[in-house]
DNA sequence: CCTTCGATCTACT
DNA sequence: GTAGATCGAAGGA
């Protein structure tokens, strides 16, 4: 299996956020395997990022994993949904990359079963939607992304990457305008 | 214990 | 594009 290794996750967070585009996010459950290409991410840079949960090194039970080494899953429940991040940065530096959207690749039947009868593009075009479609839950908190049942493998090289402001952080002061959102240019599966 | 607050989604205009 | 739902976690008493 072509798992991404530690050198990959050791990249600076902003670069990692772009490198993750086109990679495959895979989740195995007893119901089957579901996977998709990552096509939209957002970077959250620890202590200096007003929009990050780890702003000012805020450390709680939930943000704890971000203070560890890169390559682990940071799952967080909010608004009745579960979001998933890839922890980045060295141990002690709480940075992470939020996965905002993926393009369905395999296990699409399973996604329809979990999400209900929707259009294909509505299966995974949002942070809370993709976790439900893939079956990612709070139980995956702290899981390393290079061992089953949850892992990331190499995918394809996107033709072109777009960059822009992050979404859903209107109340985060100056941080709301930081251009730390990345997506595959032209993809139909970006959240907006 | 009790109050507040979202890194969202959905439906509806 | 925008308002409303909704519930677990965080933080204060």
From TrEMBL:
Superkingdom of the source? Bacteria
Q: What keywords would UniProt list here?
A: DNA damage, DNA repair, Glycosidase, Hydrolase
Keyword DNA repair included in the entry's annotation: yes
Q: Which InterPro entries match?
A: Formyl_transferase-like_C_sf, MPG, MPG_sf
Enzyme Commission number, as recorded: 3.2.2.-
Is Oxidoreductase found in the keyword set?
Answer: no
Q: Which family does it belong to?
A: Belongs to the DNA glycosylase MPG family.
Q: What are the recorded GO MF terms, alphabetically?
A: hydrolase activity, acting on glycosyl bonds
- Full protein name: Putative 3-methyladenine DNA glycosylase
Q: Name one Pfam family in it.
A: Pur_DNA_glyco
- Organism of origin is Halobacillus seohaensis
């Amino acid at each position: 299996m072509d798992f991404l290794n530690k050198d990959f996750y050791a990249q600076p967070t902003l670069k990692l956020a772009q490198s993750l585009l086109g990679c495959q996010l895979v989740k195995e459950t007893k119901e089957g395997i579901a996977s998709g290409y990552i096509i939209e991410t957002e970077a959250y840079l620890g202590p200096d990022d007003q929009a990050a949960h780890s702003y000012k090194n805020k450390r709680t039970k939930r943000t704890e994993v971000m203070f560890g080494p890169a390559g682990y899953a940071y799952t967080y429940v909010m608004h009745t949904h579960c979001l998933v991040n890839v922890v980045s940065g060295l141990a002690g530096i709480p940075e992470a990359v939020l996965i905002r959207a993926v393009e369905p690749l395999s296990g699409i039947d399973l996604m329809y079963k979990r999400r209900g009868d929707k259009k294909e593009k509505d299966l995974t075009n949002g942070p809370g939607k993709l976790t439900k479609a893939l079956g990612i839950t709070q139980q995956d908190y702290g899981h390393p992304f290079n061992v089953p049942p949850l892992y990331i493998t190499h995918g394809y090289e996107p033709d072109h990457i777009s960059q822009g402001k992050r979404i859903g952080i209107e109340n985060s002061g100056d941080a709301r305008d930081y251009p730390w959102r990345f997506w595959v240019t032209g993809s139909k599966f970006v959240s907006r």
